[in-house]
Amino acid sequence: MTFLILPKLKQNSDVRPSDEAGKWDAQAPKTFQDVASSLDYKSPGRVKSVSSVPTMWARPLSIEMALHNSGYPIRAELIEQWQGMLAALALAEIRGFPLLAQLLDLENLRDQKNSFARSLYELLPDPVNALYTLDGKNPWQDVYVFLWDGNPVGMTSPSTLVVPSEEGKWEGLPWWNRQESRLETPHRYLNISEKGLLWRWLENLRKELNNHKGQPEALDMMRGLLDEFRDSLGAYPQQNLSLSDDPQFFGVELNKGVLRGLNKPVKSQPKASCVRLIPSPDKPKVRDLLIIDPEIAKAWDEKSQNIWVYENKTLASLNIEDLKTGKILWNNVECLESKDLFLPKFTFIDLEDALPGAFLPNTNQLNFNGKKITPLIPLNPILLNYLTPEDLIKRIQITPINGSEGPLVRVVLDLPLSGLKNDDKQPQNYRIFKDYPIQEENALTEVPVLELWPNFRAENWKEYYAFYYDVENGEETFQVSFPEAQNPHLFQDRRGNYQIARLEEFPSFITCQNPARIPIGLILLKTPEKIQLTASWKVGVDFGTSFTNVYVNRKDIVEPLPLENLHLKVTEVQVDTRNPVLFEYFIPESFIPPEKPLPLSSVLTTRGKPLSIPNQDRQDRPIYDGRIYIPDRKRFEPQQNWMETDLKWKNLILNLLFLKHLALHITALAAKNGVREIQWSFSYPSAFSNGDKSRYAQSWQRLTEGLEAQTGIRQLCPAVSDLDSFRTESLAIAQYFADQEDYNLVASTCIDMGGGTSDISIWQDNQLVHQCSVLLAGRDLFSQFLELNPTFFSNRLEVDSQDWQGLKEGKFNAKLDVFLRLEGESWLKNKRHEVEDQEDFLGFLGLMALGFSGLYYYVGTLLGVLYNEGKYNRNEITPVYMGGNGSRLLHWLAIGGQFDKDSEVNQLFSWMLSKGSGFPDTEEITRLSQKPKDEVACGLVLERTKLTGLRKKDKDPLIAGENCEVNGTLIDWRDRLELDGNIQEFKVSEFEQLRNFLDEFNLALRELNIDGLKPMKNYSPGVGLEPSYSDKLWREIQKELTKVTLTIKGEADNIRVEPPFILGLKALLRVLGKEWAGK
What we know:
1079 residues, alpha+beta, Immunoglobulin-like, 4 domains, 7-stranded mixed beta sheet, 5-stranded antiparallel beta sheet, 26 helices, 30% helix, disordered N terminus, membrane, ATPase_NBD
């Protein structure tokens, strides 16, 4: 079938044919209108356009004729296209259409000698139907061309507002008919809201027509067309007009006449997001997370323009690239494409059950190469900002599937989104998944040591610590990042990589990373149950030179601090690897010996401590900078520069760091047991100077203030003036003997012997008569002799001398304390009898007996002086109740290694009490505590027996026990030694009492004939020591003592006062110890 190139004219046509073919005739401006009305066109199919206008401006003039001439043959079809383009402009923002505009200034282009522009300019249509005028210009001179994805699809027109191009490519526009390459009316593609907005926009455009001087008839026609379009959209809408905030939304401002009404598309009214991730109820308020995925519309069977993303953007209008490039900035929300919720690779641990502390989804067993594996969850950790591990784990499925190129694992994630109803209580699910190949290159063959402490939650508790050690496995394992970690400390020691981090919340996950610190998976952690804090504890702390003990009183039940395991063991590592590293670098999971873990060694380790930064003022932090060390015999190396001992008497900073960790650990255990309030009670030796005592009390006050802020546990800390809760060790042990072992304090002496001090209290009728503390204890009576004679130590106690080489004083004592605690009882039971007749061992026992006897002689002196002062009214010696870690040393003096009330050495001690006091020897016995080193801590939390005199603040100065001179003033051995002001000289010139004691000691051993204890070799009855030996001995004692007294200078408040008798006794022991050691 053939068609005419141009349709024929109607019989009643107003068009006059040309007189001559091929000749151009001048016609009136209305000729094109006449042509359009006169065409007699009957199409065999659907009509898209009529191209009967012989001009470069044919398309816009055809649209003009169609809109302004109701008789135009295909008027209805072209009006549909016109409406379709107006709708595209109006809804460009809310639908995110890729529309831009460019201004064509034909006069300017003509002047630039553009031949095509010159032709267009010379053939400009007459503005017979112009809707606006331009000053001095034909309105057709300035037109805008619209581009869709960079391709021209239409233009503006002074007579029709817009002109859609013929067969323009509007790819993605719902009302573009792709098959016929033309626009259609938009009605069936719009929701109610969009129709209402378009209605308002058309109304606004109609009003704009009134603001410009256009042709009246043309304006009337355009108003009518706009009214028809507007009314076809439905009834009068409820929403108000809202236009874009962008004055150049289309890239340029459309500001030519009526075209101003096209310049801004509509802006939808903000609605609640449908794609907001609904957080778990327990999660704190965080910025909304919006999940962006065009497939949501399909999954929910909803049009994309009905799914709001944020503010006025829908899935239809949002261009995700605008978010990526920053063209759109949403400051109050997080946005993620759903694909970004998955990590790029599936990393797994090539071991079964490698993560016992992890929270894994219920899934079919995963295998690789015939072996069971443990997955790392390949999800973006941002999800854990919104979902608890419990909620997330329920929404994850990990399923093995078969792929064409090998095994796959499908990770399915169900996202609770706000949905179309925007109901947080009934979220709308959106399921996404990703299939991963299980590849050997993503397998990890080892796991690190990974721990969290403490494993609980409590109101306002903000002290959590995480630990990581790669077990020197490098790339065979993973590194970690802890969420919200406070100052994570990463360090290397030898070939191992470590990390310690502090957190203020129990972490919900751990991010696993490769060596480049790129995330490779998550370890989810189950949220611990929140502990309800209702109880209260009274806690007694006995901070000793060698050991530190803690007791608890809860509802009058008194017991040692329960050392529960508060660890979360995240990874499964061999015990012989895991336990040592926790001891050395973190918090031990268990304490040793397990059958009686208390007391703790007073040892601090600073291994792995962060390097100090010059000029940075920062307080040392527990765990990070130093931790309580739990030594065992084989592993303990006190000579290492990170080991700190002798904390009680020396470095105040390290002392405080030890106490900080101790208090934190106690508070964590309290919280685990539901405690909301701790009443602290502390002991201190009377040997503390006033300055020592004040500093110790202030240390506890400062650290408990910080602890309360960080843990939420109320900390009641005593001031230095609180005599109920800040007690001397001598008073605390007396309370223990009265309450716990039911000893009477009618007339008795209590001694708490530790490693550095012996704290003495004398009682009469449950009333305190006198208390003091002397620096004479385990280290003077035992340890120093072994240090002086390493050969004896190695041979008789069967230790490896290499392990002890180079250890001096505090370091040696600390290691010996551990050895005695772990091995001492066994040696006494099984080995003592083998050496008890050896000369060197007998010499060792003689030195010990001499030291203990000197202490008892001094106690006897105290009784005699107190009697003379009228403070003790019994002319008799007292039984002695002895406790403390040093009290165990009495077992070394007893046959069979077990001291009790029947031990012969009791006779020696009673003798010494008698001779020191001048009272008759009534053969009083010494009773050892049933719980050595528990007594003071336990006594601090006891108060059943009402002892009096505990609260007295009167001065109770030391009794000298030996003549001395202070600043040239003679002080008699029976006088009180009360230092005041500035001490310039302290001298002990004569040893009257010490000589008497030594004579009585030798005489007692001769008279009592105690098995294993003999008088000194140079001693003769009735003569004493051989004169030449005696002279030499006392000269050496004087030198040894002078070395000490020369240091007793300065302000009295800062001097730890010691009785001159005890100073002399220690000098005597030192000299005789060297003699025994052959030095």
